[in-house]
């Protein structure tokens, strides 16, 4: 009987030790569904001039959180990184509009522009690359 009590107490102590070592990390998190940029069209591609052109880009997207409308677009090219508001993007998928002014410091020739977005939840998308011919 004494051996049974000792074994029972040891099992109870071991169980308490195991349970107390578990961190209360808040439980599992849901799946992450960052926004995806799937294609683009530059509306005024034939008229790209430094300092005098506002570039308008239609970008196809998927955003399961439906918060793209509250997000920000980041535009990066040789002269720096700029931000743009996102228009026409209230659905889970569709085509959004972004626009940005081209710096007057950009030299004529090919210009690689990278665009990525953060939706209203702060989730970042993939990056798309746009090649512009600056005249």
UniProtKB/TrEMBL annotation:
Keyword terms, alphabetized: Signal
Signal peptide residue numbers: 1-23
Protein name per UniProt: Bacterial spore germination immunoglobulin-like domain-containing protein
């Amino acid at each position: 009987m004494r051996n049974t009590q000792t074994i029972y107490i040891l099992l109870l102590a071991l169980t308490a030790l195991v349970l107390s070592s578990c961190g209360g990390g808040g439980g599992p998190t849901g799946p992450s569904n960052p926004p995806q940029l799937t294609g683009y069209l530059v509306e005024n591609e034939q008229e790209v001039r430094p300092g005098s052109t506002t570039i308008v880009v239609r970008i196809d997207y998927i955003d399961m959180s439906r918060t793209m409308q509250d997000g920000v677009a980041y535009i990066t090219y040789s002269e720096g990184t700029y931000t743009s508001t996102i228009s026409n993007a209230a659905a889970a998928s569709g085509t959004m509009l972004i626009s940005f002014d081209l710096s007057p410091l950009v030299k004529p020739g090919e210009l690689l522009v990278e665009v990525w977005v953060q939706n209203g939840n702060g989730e970042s998308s993939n990056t798309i690359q746009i090649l512009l011919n600056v005249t």
